[in-house]
């Protein structure tokens, strides 16, 4: 191999390496957007922090739900369908809810707020001050 061929090879390798670096996807932690349970919301600054969500019991009371019964799961009138007899089960610890008549369900107060207001995930998180 002569000097010219060697130089050409180095140049080619540099070009390859440069492209490879440029094509490498950004590290997930450094990519723009936020992540929530594996979901990313592109183009959003900040992130959802579930620890900032309001305590479920006071949140649901503020939403006008009357939680009745004892224990972790309470009954309430379902706001997602015309309900005369409490058919919504609400977890006062986690905020999870499930209606046995209309099937409305979710894992926390954010899901509830999202479902009730029609807000997007980020919007609902911000409305509940769970966005930082
Ligand atoms: Zn319902």
What is the terminal separation in angstroms? 60 Å
Distinct small molecules bound, one entry per kind: zinc ion
- CATH architecture label: Alpha-Beta Complex
Any low-confidence stretches, pLDDT <50, length ≥5?
19-39
The CATH superfamily turns out to be Zinc finger, CHC2-typedomain
What is the CATH level 1 assignment? Alpha Beta
Nearest-integer average pLDDT? 83
Q: Topology as H/E string?
A: HEEHEEEEHH
Estimate percent helicity.
25-40%
Taken together, the total number of domains comes to 1
How big a fraction of the residues is strand?
A: 5-15%
Spatial arrangement of strands, main beta sheet: 3-4-5-6
Instruction: From the 3D structure, determine the CATH topology.
Output: DNA Primase, Chain A
Morphology call? rod-shaped
Class computed from helices, strands and strand pairing: alpha+beta
The number of helical runs is: 4
Integer-rounded radius of gyration: 25 Å
Major sheet characteristics: 4 strands, antiparallel
Q: How many strand segments?
A: 6
